[in-house]
User: Fold this.
Amino acid sequence: MLTDLMIEEAAWEAVDLEEIAERAALAALAHHDLAPADWEIAVLACNDARIAELNAEFREKPTPTNVLSWPAEDLAPEAPGEAPYAPTPDPMEPGATPLGDIAIAWETCLREAEAGGIPLTDHLTHLILHATLHLLGYDHIRDEDATLMETIETGILGKMGIPDPYSRDAG
Assistant:
């Protein structure tokens, strides 16, 4: 499997996050013509308290958030709006090369899905896809990068039968 799931919060047992994470991550890699067998993504399914700790430690924002990601390699492009550099499997690494880590928080995700009238599985798929794109070097700090990342996200989600999450925000 591409994703290695660690469930730290029991509430996650209410959904099949293993299947959701695997499907979303596979879709991101397929879009980039990357062989899933070459890569591994660790996914931590936690609660708001834990993700707030992680957010404080790594981003100096001591509040809960929906999802965080830590790329194993900096693949970000130099110029705004350019595609990130492609990851390369480590030939010295036995088995799959780590692409990075993702943490996702139950309460925030559930609250966002309910507030947006979005099926929870669709919202989780979007967030794991979003985080996987971060692992692949995409970001949304600069406007040009945000446009590129959102275009790729909505295209992949559309192929998965999930409506554009950004058009819901605007509506």
